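Hi there,

I know you've been waiting on this one. I reran it after we fixed the sequence typo, so this is the corrected version. Both the input and the resulting structure follow.
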Amino acid sequence: MNISIVIPLLNEDESISELTSWIERVMATNNFSYEIIFIDDGSTDNSWQIICDLSKINTNIKGLKFRRNYGKSAALNCGFEAAKGDVIITMDADLQDSPDEIPELYNMIISQDYDIVSGWKKKRYDPITKTLPTKLFNWATRKMSGIYLHDFNCGLKAYKNEVIKTIEVYGEMHRYIPVIAKWTGFKKIGEKVVTHQKRKYGTTKFGIERFTNGFLDLLSISFVSKFGKKPMHFFGTIGTLSFIMGGGVSIWIIFEKVYQIVTSGGYKRDITDNPLFFIALLAMIIGTQLFLTGFLAEMISRNSTDKNKYIIKDKCN
């Protein structure tokens, strides 16, 4: 199979049929073998019924329905598990991503041997309250990840099958799939300018909080990618340095006390009257706790095989 098109959605019943017809025309024109995988992320409208009806007409259409809303990352992860195509295309269901971009995205993966090709909505039809935070978010991600894409959050992307079968998307990490892929070893990541269409139906499902969550997710994935398999390197290093600093200060305070007694004689201030002693003691305690945290995290990371589980309520086709 040439292409798997993975489409997560939430309450998009007005656009599903139109999007499906558009994709079918593009696939037929280019003689692609394909499948369309809709992941209904707990919709409360008529989206699931439309997907099931379409799957009866076209056997290339498949659907997965979550029992409740888990989020876009969970939907993509389940879609990736089900995808069988050589190239996997992800896109949103709101008609703001154009299926006409699919053939060139496919060719960039197959002919130019990219691992990932990310869409870049160079000209956007969003208000400045959305575009400005997006630019800041993309700038921060570029600096922290070393991947120089203009639009990390664009839903229109193409992947080699090997990439999506290797990585796991969880939490709200869908924004950082190129980052996850790079740190997994897939380094040939390209970009293509794609058309951004005005939303035709409904309203956006994402609020301003996605930018705050996005930044926190970036910090999280940066930490996990570097220390997820070796947490002792992080916690153990900081803990050891803290303990050594605290211990060194404590020894210096004690030595100073003994030296003053030997050289000057008479009563000197107790060590416990020196505030620096308590700071040093605190540093030693924190250092010990951090070291033990790293030790426990190391044991957990070596023995844990659990993955996030998402409850699928129903399937069609």
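Quick highlight: Residues 231-303 form one domain.

Best,
R. S.
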